[in-house]
Amino acid sequence: MDPTDKEDKDVTCVIGDRSSSDVVVRLRTQEGRDDWLYCHSEILVKNCKYFADRLSDNWPTCQILGSRNCVDIYCQESDFDYHVNFIRLLYIVIDASLDDFWHGVTNALGILQVAVHLQCPKIVAASVNYLEAVTWEETEEEEILKIVPPMGLQAEPILARLQPVNQSAIKNIFLSAIRFATSSPPPSMNDLKSSAQEQLEYMLTEDDDAPLLIADDEIKLEVKQCVNRLFSGFNNSLIHLFCGSTESLSEAGNIPLFQSYLTDLSWVCQILSKLEIMRDFVECWFDASEKIVKVLEQGGSTTEVVEIKLRAIEVASKVLEAIAYGTVILPTAKRLQVLKMWLPFVRVAKPMIDSTMMNCESAVLLKMDGEMWQSLESSFVSIILALPSGDQAELLTEWLGNEHIRYPDLTEAFEVWCYRSKVARRRLSLLEEEDVITHSI
């Protein structure tokens, strides 16, 4: 036969054409479905090993329907359409013109399973190329993870985007992200910055999986430098507001910038805590606290100023928590000083924040986790109880005489102080007696 005649014969073969068909493919399911597809053995044998074996002279059970060979294929009802599409693909795979045929990830994945089972390398390769190139929905990704790995090397390119990344690549992207997340881009890029901050925190979080990144000294150093630059910008903004102390915060301008800095500082505390490098931040916040409180106290009570006060309290709560639970060790004088700066401010600011939340339509921006207020109160109590008893008495005396006695509630500190003070002489006298006995022996 002339080669041109053979190509014409291939082109004229159309699935379902009974007049030229010489083989019937029966797709059958357990539910009793039995569909006949009128096909052409030349197409099937050329493109699929399964059909080549079934239609060979070596296959003893090939049935004859009239003048046609018959091949039965049993499948699940849910896979029925994939088998039909697979057989249709056998008629066009010669031209490799498959890009418009897949109709989505789910369909391509189903066809891939059929192609692997029926041993059709061309369709396997085509479906792998498609699945490797397109985006996946989350549910599709989970399905791919169930189906593709057992297929081995032939389907391996599909999983390339899911493979673990080496630590060098993870480290590089973390460093790039932390630099961006601690910068001050234009307001139009705030969403990008917030997304970077979320992902950085996620990379360091231990949940069902281990953290993506284990920080080494180089990473910690870079994070410290980024935080120092962030704090430097915050200090410059603070100095500008502090030097203009004759005008209120709401009149001074730059409120969005100042608020942005506080939001970033609150976030960066999470990163520093996970990396266990809070000390420098706590020291910087301590040094700036007097100016911060003074600026905020003169700020007025507009919604935007109240929100700034709230953001500052968020940062202060994380600093105080680090001090209270020994993450960062400060000398007694500094611990007492930080209490004297932030206790009075917080007890006055909280009623103002609560009132604004209740009365202002835009108060949705002021929502604050109730656990944060509880944690802040616990930190105050813990720091107080670690001070010398005389300093405790001074702070508790001031608290009991204050109109804002309800928050923070220092009742626990008061109870512990009363007990310690009452039994102190007896405890110490017993210790002195034991010491005398020890020395006499």
TrEMBL record:
It holds the Pfam family BTB-POZ_ANK-like. The keyword Iron does not apply. It comes from Cicer arietinum (Chickpea). May act as a substrate-specific adapter of an E3 ubiquitin-protein ligase complex (CUL3-RBX1-BTB) which mediates the ubiquitination and subsequent proteasomal degradation of target proteins. Residues 218-422 form the At3g05675-like ankyrin-like domain. This is BTB/POZ domain-containing protein At3g05675. Pathway: Protein modification; protein ubiquitination. InterPro entries: At3g05675-like, At3g05675-like_ankyrin, SKP1/BTB/POZ_sf. Keywords: Ubl conjugation pathway. Gene3D superfamilies: Potassium Channel Kv1.1, Chain A. PANTHER family: OS07G0668800 PROTEIN, OSJNBA0011J08.25 PROTEIN-RELATED. It comes from the Eukaryota. GO terms for biological process: protein ubiquitination.
